[in-house]
Design brief:
Layout lengths: L2 H19 L6 E2 L2 E9 L6 E11 L3 E10 L6 E13 L7 E7 L15 H5 L2 E2 L7 E2 L2 E9 L4 E8 L30 E4 L2 E10 L3 H5 L3 E9 L3 E11 L4 E11 L2 E11 L2 E11 L7 E7 L5 E10 L15 E10 L11 E9 L4 E10 L6 E13 L2 E12 L13 E9 L1
Parallel strand pairs: 12-16
Antiparallel strand pairs: 1-3, 2-3, 2-25, 3-4, 4-5, 5-6, 6-9, 7-8, 9-10, 10-13, 11-12, 13-14, 14-17, 15-16, 17-18, 18-19, 19-20, 20-21, 21-22, 22-23, 23-24, 24-25
Length: 424
């Protein structure tokens, strides 16, 4: 649905990034390339998977190009420059600066980037084309970080461009049938009327692309960071990142068969949110508690809790840890959500363990425990480093759950994969 939007924005940002990279600068660039072959339980033939992340940074600029591609009839692709920002410092301390480009404003002041499993990350626009590895998207615009003292900042941002959440395509054909990509959440394929089951054909209507994209977004926060506390209180206004479908249905006889023709008008109503986050650093797992409140629907709120800690060290010779372990919870309360959501009382744990100098085991477990929406996702991955910067990977992914649950809708997409990874 929004491939045209994403493509246009991607070309614009990629061109901007290329112009900036062409400038001489004392900068560093890295590249993380991953190639894998997947075998899904739902398919006989294997699929090819490629992901690439290229961060580039200097004193005045930070950019990262993210590439994702999966082959096959259900595959998807994404080229997403995020973040891409230029800094214009206002003094020698570099604590006061304007930025222009694409970024999530709170990534400038938090100890960890905004994550999909946080209260704010769950309601913010995301790139979900790689559905099991979603990323919270930045805004395209400009912002100001202004020091209010040694530990406090004013953090404001403005974007004239609205980019909705990117999810797997439903793939509507000209005749209204659905040819979905992997992990797409399917609408009903048939309906019963008068005791007769008839197929549904869909027709999608949207406003002009310019009316969707050219919408103002505002963000403001007061942040605090010292040796004990990292906290922020914030408010923002933006169109809803996930469309609200307005439907109009009618029965249409054709070629001796009756079908239900459903016209879908996708709307992005404006929402206003406020929230606060508090992270306490002295504890071993540095707990972070966050609460968000919809300012137009007072019964709509989210809360999350996340802890970060060093994973168990089975190998006594490991000197540097590459990633930290985390665990937590995310849930909504008050209003009942019509569709399944990651916040259906999610609990999760992410645990990387260096078994030897060469072998690393990573496990990720995510469970939604809300009644009648129980589901789960379990990833186990082994990485063996053959040489510095080059390793081989083997992973198993298991998905399960009841109908109409977050991971349950994908339970046929369990897989195992084998691949290679280069970092240079």
């Amino acid at each position: 649905m929004f491939l045209g939007i994403r493509g246009g924005v991607t070309v614009l940002l990629t061109y901007t990034l290329a112009l900036i990279l062409a400038r001489p600068s004392n900068a560093a660039i890295e590249d993380d390339l991953q190639l894998e072959v997947f075998k899904y339980a739902s398919e006989r033939a294997p699929t090819f998977y490629l992901s690439n992340s290229t961060p580039y940074y200097s004193n005045e600029f930070l950019g990262q190009m993210n590439l994702y591609f999966e082959s096959g009839a259900k595959g998807a692709w994404s080229v997403d420059p995020d973040p891409v920002r230029v800094h214009l410092f206002l003094d020698d301390t570099k604590r006061n600066f304007f930025w222009i480009g694409r970024e999530h404003p709170l990534n400038l002041t938090r100890t960890q980037p905004v994550e999909p499993t946080s209260a704010l990350g769950n309601i913010w626009a995301q790139n979900q084309l790689d559905a099991l590895n979603p990323r919270v998207s930045g805004w395209i615009g400009l912002g100001l970080l202004k020091s209010l003292g040694h530990t406090d900042h004013l953090n404001i941002a403005y974007s004239p461009f609205f980019i909705p959440t990117f999810g797997p395509s439903l793939g509507f054909t000209n005749s209204g049938e659905i040819n979905p990509s992997r992990y797409a959440r399917l609408p009903p394929a048939s309906v019963e009327t008068g005791g007769v089951t008839v197929p549904i054909r869909y027709e999608l209507h949207t406003d002009q692309i310019s009316k969707i994209v050219l919408q103002n977004q505002f963000f403001a926060a007061i942040t605090h960071d010292d040796d004990t506390i990292n906290s922020d209180i914030y408010a923002y206004t933006s169109p809803r990142p996930n469309p609200v479908p307005l439907t109009n249905a009618k029965l249409v006889p054709a070629n001796g068969q009756v079908t239900a023709n459903v016209q879908i008008d996708a709307q992005f109503p404006r929402e206003d949110w406020a929230g606060a986050r508090l992270q306490y650093k002295p504890l071993v797992f540095q707990p972070a508690l966050e609460f968000t409140q919809n300012l137009k629907q007072y019964d709509n709120h989210y809360v999350s809790f996340t802890g970060y800690f060093d994973s168990p060290q089975l190998n006594p010779f490991v000197v540097k840890r590459t990633t930290r372990a985390s665990f937590g919870m995310l849930t909504h309360f008050g209003a009942n959500l019509t569709d399944s959501d990651l916040s259906d009382f999610l609990v999760f744990v992410k645990l990387p363990i260096e078994l030897t100098n060469e072998l690393t085991w990573r496990t990720l477990l995510e469970l939604t425990l809300l009644t009648q929406r129980q589901s789960g996702y379990w990833l186990n991955e082994l990485e063996y480093a053959i040489s510095k910067g080059f390793s081989v990977l083997f992973a198993v992914r298991v998905l399960s759950g009841v109908d109409n649950s977050y991971f349950g809708d994908w339970r046929a997409e369990g897989s195992y994969s084998l691949g290679m990874k280069w970092v240079w």
